[in-house]
Specification:
alpha+beta, 2 domains, four-stranded antiparallel β-sheet, three-stranded mixed β-sheet
């Protein structure tokens, strides 16, 4: 019989191993590999010293975690997040309580090629419909870049008619999206929820790959556009995607000429610009529109 005993102690050797037989397991604490040469655990992007319980080098993405600290692990919240390769934080969304009262959550990682593995969930289908629509029409550059990136972009469903937004929270790219929320601009054109999704992902990509530039533009206030970052996105990716989706005329220089002052409107689907004749829906998911106006599955 082969027996291995791993024990944590605060003194001397931190994680001693007692083996019976020839078996020697290098993967011990937290399932990570113990480097025999250094006595430290290898987390893929940095080493963890179990004797003093800290990482000995700065997180490679510390530039985007300025208010967290470069030596912390998963934003100091290991009950909520994991860090499987030392470079990403994975968030669990759509939280709920199970029969035992414990918080559980579902998530699905989309990498641009695994659509067939998508769960049977309406919000996921809404996202994929918008993603494929934008890409097929020649827009959605930032959506595609995010899908194939070695970074994590976290998508949450916004409340009904709650609008869409991007936030960088402790280095995390948080995007909230209303899949049935279109935007009527000043001249009466309506931008689909799919186009708005590209707008928010542009912010996320900008924050990830051009952090200093993003922050500088965000802090540069502009009349009508809120800030220079909003002007960049509206005049760039939003206009390109809206034009590709046939939502604005070819001779219109950009999709809209202000960030505020536009009207949120309920649309029939993520890719539609047709306004629904009712705003009624349940409090949570977009898959439960009453009166059959948007009821196409689970």
């Amino acid at each position: 019989m082969i027996v291995e005993h791993n024990q944590s102690t605060y003194y001397k050797s931190p994680y001693p191993t007692t083996n019976t037989g020839d078996y020697d397991n290098a993967w011990k604490f937290n399932g990570k590999e113990l480097d025999a040469a250094t006595g430290m655990y290898y987390y893929g992007a940095r080493y963890y010293d179990p004797r003093i319980s800290i990482f000995i080098s700065v997180d490679p993405l510390a530039e985007r975690y300025r208010n967290v600290g470069g030596y912390v692990y998963v934003a100091n919240n290991p009950t909520m997040f994991i860090d499987p390769d030392g470079r990403k934080i994975r968030v669990y969304y759509n939280q709920r309580k199970n029969a035992e009262g414990k918080i559980i959550a579902d998530y699905w990682d989309f990498n641009g090629t695994n659509e067939s593995s998508a769960p049977d969930n309406q919000f996921v289908r809404d996202f994929l419909e918008a993603y494929n629509y934008n890409i097929k029409n020649g827009g959605g550059d930032n959506l595609k870049r995010a899908a194939f990136a070695n970074e994590l972009f976290e998508l949450f469903e916004s409340i009904a008619m709650g609008g869409s937004s991007f936030h960088n929270l402790y280095g995390r790219n948080i995007i909230k999206w209303d899949p049935l929320g279109g935007l009527m601009v000043s001249n009466g054109d309506i931008l689909s929820a799919a186009t708005i999704l590209e707008h928010e992902f542009d912010h996320g990509v900008s924050m990830t790959y051009d952090t200093k530039g993003h922050l500088k533009r965000r802090d540069t206030k502009l009349k009508d556009y809120t800030n220079a970052e909003e002007l960049r996105v509206i005049s760039g990716s939003e206009t390109k995607t809206a034009r590709a989706n046939g939502e604005i005329s070819a001779n219109k220089s950009q999709s809209r000429f202000s960030h505020g002052g536009n009207t949120r409107v309920p649309t029939e689907s993520p890719t539609s610009t047709k306004v629904r004749n009712t705003k009624e829906r349940t409090k949570s998911s977009s898959n439960k529109i009453i009166k059959g106006l948007y009821n196409y599955g689970k």
